[in-house]
Write a structure and sequence with these properties.
303 residues; mainly alpha; MetI-like fold; 2 domains; 0% strand; disordered N terminus; disordered C terminus
Length: 303
């Protein structure tokens, strides 16, 4: 093989032409605007006065004054405030539980010769094709006495087969010699997992944690099925009932008037709830985004 052939780069590694770079920049700009424009209109409408929303006839595109009345309304409303606390608690508890179970299951399945290795691996892979269904799941949750319990928001969707497979693939990429040397030194499996495997798997663990957290934060279907007590509703279900279905909140409609402000428009309150629901993901995502390539892509390919 000649030196010229051995140093030849792949076509995608060659520097692009000026037209190609301008075209890519234009496409990225258009996509960015398509993503940011709805967020801009939602945020601006939530911060607009009643007069501005009325004159706009809907979502506000041009700012004509800033008002925080909509946010005062939802945070003084016990229904929305309680829903935020419920969503926060369920997200934190559910994410910790789901990540813990997924890590333990993935580590066990990544070690050949572990207890019931093949049947359990087959069962996890089978979950990609078959799902128990809504009615059996509902009957199981009811028979376990989990109706109207916060556990009904966590246990039915506690483990994702996709996340377990990604974690397993990443764990299998860790050199076996490193783990064997720890066993020779007397370390048990739990200590190996805690002291060696998890520190080497921070990227994929962070990504999987984000997947679970976003899933719990945005989940509303389980709450609609299993929670008859409206005081236990999470924010996602409040968002669906009030914003999508335009249902009236049962309490707190006079919260702003007590502060001497005009009652904000209904549309502004809806958009304020949307902002509060979306804000946590927007804040957390930039801190985890840098782990996506190393965590998910590498974890899905290796092993």
């Amino acid at each position: 093989m000649s030196a010229t052939t051995s140093t030849r780069r792949a076509p995608w590694e060659e520097p692009g032409s000026l037209a190609g770079r301008l075209g890519k920049g234009g496409v990225i700009t258009v996509v960015l605007l398509l993503v940011l424009f709805p967020l801009y209109t939602i945020l601006l409408t939530s911060l607009s006065t009643s007069k501005t929303v009325t004159e706009a006839g809907g979502l506000v595109l041009v700012p004509q004054g800033i008002s925080f009345d909509a946010y005062r309304q939802i945070f003084s409303d016990t229904v929305v405030s309680r829903a935020i606390m419920v969503s926060t608690g369920v997200t934190l508890a559910g994410t910790v539980f789901s990540v813990g179970v997924s890590v333990l299951g993935a580590y066990s399945l990544s070690r050949p010769g572990s207890f019931l290795h093949r049947p359990l691996l087959f069962g996890v892979l089978l979950m990609f094709v078959f799902f128990p269904g809504l009615i059996p799941t509902y009957l199981l949750v009811s028979s376990l006495g989990l109706k109207d319990s916060y556990l009904s928001l966590i246990l039915p969707s506690a483990v994702s087969a996709f996340n377990v497979v990604v974690l397993r693939a990443f764990f299998m990429s860790i050199p076996g010699e490193l783990l064997d040397s720890a066993r020779i030194d007397g370390a048990g499996e739990f200590r190996i997992l805690w002291r060696i495997v998890l520190p080497l798997s921070k990227a994929v663990t962070a990504v999987i944690s984000l997947f679970y957290a976003v899933g719990y934060w945005n989940a509303w279907f389980n709450a609609m099925l299993y929670l008859d007590d409206t005081t236990k509703w999470p924010l996602a279900l409040i968002l669906r009932e009030y914003v999508v279905n335009s249902a009236a909140l049962p309490a707190g409609t006079a919260g702003v008037a007590g502060y001497g402000h005009a009652v904000p428009p209904t549309l502004a309150i809806k958009m304020a709830i949307v902002v509060v629901a979306v804000l946590p993901a927007l804040i957390i995502y930039p801190f985890v985004q840098r782990h996506f390539t190393k965590g998910v892509i590498v974890g899905a390919v290796k092993g």
